Every structure is written in structure tokens, then in C-alpha cells.
Amino acid sequence: MTRRAKPLLQDEHLLKSKPARRRDPTQPHLPFDPMPDRVEPCLALLKKVPPKGPDWAFEVKWDGYRLAIHIEPKGVRIITRGGHDWTHRFPTIAEAARKLGVGTAILDGEAVVLDNEGHSDFGALQRSLGGRGGKRSSTESVFMAFDLLYFDGHDLTGTELSVRRHLLEDFLDGVTGAIRLSDEVFGDGAELLANACSMGIEGIIAKHRDQPYRSGRTGDWLKIKCVQSESFMIIGYEQSTVARGGIGSLLLAARKEHDWVYVGSVGTGFNARNAAHLRMSLDKLRTKRPAVALKGKNLVFAQPTLIAEIEFRGWTDDGSLRHASYKGLREIQDNAAVFDMNEKPPE
């Protein structure tokens, strides 16, 4: 059975965008633009509430690996957010891209594994790749395409999102399988967020319809989450003689300018197998010079190398995570950005 992502739409007055009509093949040929080897991705800025007004469109926030699919006459390349070639890690997506029937294109989107409810499952995606540092190829993953940066010889990054989306919808009209269109909807952002939260989706992405594609965290794209989830650096652990695996909790840090700042610890979300693997990995990174000066019994410090995805419910007054839970390790090749305290929205 094909797993389908549940739409955000719950009411008739929330409108899904319509595909544009197909391009006229008789129109004059425009000059070709050189195809970029890589486009630095546009990133979403974290906000507590959705924006209002007709200039904003919304999508599901997918919980996976950000990828760009480069379709060229010589073949297909799948590039991670950090610029690594992972074509061999996603063979099913690569094969689907080869069958799209276009000479040149760059698709921006997210590789995910969907559960039975059609929700993206980050843990399942990790397992399909063999875990952090694994070499397995994922055949279960699908690519949710949400932007078109280059198409048929033309650079689209300078055009507004509404135009890029119409071209993308036209391009992927009727396409199913390992490459799918991430639906764009229009409506009240607060109502869409409520719908997403009620369905167990991580959150929504808001995108300004009139803006070109600008790399970095410009504010053109916003992310609003039901349950907060971010990447933090593991800087050590607290030993435990009771917990299986010998880890009582992981010590976490975020960035602040060019320094590390302690944001608390996490002691839930990992089982004995996870704990044993984490301890083995962190023991190889042991250091007597902690990234953040901490005092306490049974603390083991590690070089800041392993990045953990952490789910949490907010922040305490002293800057620590509330009700944190471990979700998994991020891949180095995924170039997961460690959370920057300067991006933390006011409580």
C-alpha cells in the first residue's frame, strides 16, 4: 500500500494551489543559463506563531534529510545540504528522477520515510540508512519536492516563489512513487498549524510567495513547530551505574556566536542499545578540556563532534531545554546546523 502524507487541509475554505497550464512548446526559446554545480539552500527561520496575510503559503514541515536533486544530460546527482554526493544512498529516488523526462532540473526537497499515517519518521529514515555513519542505501525513502531552482536550461532562483511553484506543480503533475510534490496550501496559518498538531505532524513551513530563492536564513521561509525539535552538540555524558548502557544523560550545547553554551541534559528517548552505542562513540572522543566548563560528579567530557536531534517543550528561564527527549544522531554529511541561541525566539 502506498503511504500518502496527510494534507493540512481540513476545511473547504483552505485552498490548495492549482497547477499552472503547461508551457507552450511553440514559444520562443530563451537563452540558456549555466547550470550551477550546487545551490546553497534557503533555510527556514524559527518562529513561535505563523505569519498572517495573503503573501504567505504553507506546507508540512518534513522531518528528514534536506536534499537537492540535480538532473543533467550526463545523469542524476543527489546532493545533501552540506554538499555531499549521496546519490548512492538514495537509489530509488535517483531512479525516479531519471524517469522524469527532463533534460536539466534542480529539485529542492526533503528525503523522508513515511509511517502508516503518512507522517515523516526521522528515526525510520535513519534506520533505513543504517544509522549514523551507516553505509546502507535507503529504498524506503521518498523525496518530497517543494521547490524548483533550475529547469530546462533556465535558472529560476531569481523568480518569485509563486512562479517556481507553478512550474514545479506542472512538472510533477501526476508523478507518484519515490518523488512526490509537497502540497502548498493557502489559508489561516494558525488554523493550519492547529490541524498539523492535531494530526501529529511536527509543524508547518510558511513561505513568502513574492520572494526569489535566497540562500541562508533570510526570513523568506519560516518554520513553526507543534513540538520543538532542534540539533544540539553532545559535549559529554553523565555516567550511571543504574541505567543500562552506563549513560544517565547526555550533556548538550548550542552555539552562541563562536562559542558553545550549555543548554542542559537529556536522559530519555534512547534505549539500552542506543546508550551503549553512544557511550562507545563518546568514549573515543574523551577529553579533559570540556567545550563548556561544567562541574558535577560522574561527568565524562567529549570533543564536540556528535550532533543529536532533540525534541523538547520549550526553554527554562536559565536557558536550558524543558522536557528534552533524544531522537537520534544527525549525519555529518547532512550538515545539520547546531542550534544557534541567537535564533531562539522570545518566550
UniProtKB/TrEMBL annotation:
UniProt entry tagged with the keyword tRNA-binding: no
Pfam families attached to this UniProt entry: DNA_ligase_A_C, DNA_ligase_A_M
Domain of life according to the entry: Bacteria
EC number: 6.5.1.1
Transmembrane intervals: none
ATP-dependent DNA ligase family profile domain residues: 134-225
Region named Disordered: 1-35
Entry keyword set: Ligase
A GO term, aspect molecular function: DNA ligase (ATP) activity
GO BP: any one term: DNA repair
Catalytic activity annotation: ATP + (deoxyribonucleotide)n-3'-hydroxyl + 5'-phospho-(deoxyribonucleotide)m = (deoxyribonucleotide)n+m + AMP + diphosphate
Family: Belongs to the ATP-dependent DNA ligase family.
PANTHER family, sorted: DNA LIGASE 1, DNA LIGASE 1/3 FAMILY MEMBER
Identification of the protein by name: DNA ligase (ATP)
The species this protein was found in: Rhizobium sophoriradicis
